Amino acid sequence: MHYYSFNVADYRKDTSHLNLLEHGIYRSLLDSYFLNEFALCSDDDHLMRKHCVRTDIEQKAYKNVINDFFKEVDGFYFNDGAEKVLSKLFEKSAKARAAAEKRWAKAGVIHKGNDAIAGISNEESMQTHIECMHDESEFNADGMLPINPSPNNLKSVSPSALADGSAKQANKKTPIPYKNIKELWNKYAPNLKGCKELTPKRKNAIKKLWNYKSDDNNHPYRDGDFYRRWFAFCNNDLWYQGNDPQQADNNWKADLEFCLKIDNIIKKMEG
User: Fold this and answer.
1) Is 146 helix (H, G, I), strand (E, B) or coil?
2) Mean pLDDT by 10-residue block, N- to C-terminus, for the chain (271 residues)?
3) pTM above the 0.70 mark?
4) What are the residue ranges spanned by the domains of the chain?
5) Cβ proximity of 262 and 212 under 8 Å
6) Residue 2 class from Cβ within 10 Å (0-12 exposed, 13-18 middle, 19+ buried)?
7) Where are the beta strands (DSSP E) in the chain?
8) Order of strands across the sheet with 71-73?
9) Runs of H (alpha helix) within 37-139
């Protein structure tokens, strides 16, 4: 997210006790929060380096800000105000997407299943769907994926909750948006290995996860919000970055295929 609304009155009411240095650090942390659309990694050394917190005075100011405005949950710093803004954004995005899909369905743009649309292949059909979403959804940067509405309350988001809300996804066949999942990976996981080409191996990894069925016979990973959150989570994980002190090979970094393996996802979700 490159833009978000800022309520000056609310901010001043909550931060009247901060000095100028603390204001600067807090605003810098909030910018990162909204830019990534996700909570901040709670590794203080990593976070301070990313935000140029160097001197003892700056580190003390940083700690004051963290203690006053953030709550640590499962290795991430969550901010109540930022979560409220993101929740409203995702809710509006979901409503806009649902309304647009109804309009397109009436116009014959979208068909269920794998039937071709007026002689157009599934892949081309999905691209048409994508282009419409880019044109008509003001806030839906990731609207290219057929996703469920986002949760209204993100305060308790954790690895075990990344796929919540998608378990009741309809058991229908839909075109697999390979290109768009690749784009989400490159957008939300910049600290990990990039994906320039959709090789057969990568397409196979995407296809396996997309078609994975849970115990209740649903497809929990046909949810665009899941990919956004999961890739952002992977991006902030020290082990996946190759920065964990316990790793034998510090040159290793997680790639798209690794993060799409169902065993790795479930392992993180179950803690």
Assistant:
1) coil
2) 80 95 96 85 89 96 96 85 80 61 53 35 38 35 38 40 44 73 90 93 94 88 84 89 75 92 89 70
3) no
4) 8-78, 82-269
5) yes
6) exposed
7) 40-41, 71-73, 76-78
8) 40-41, 76-78, 71-73
9) 44-50, 56-69, 80-106, 122-136
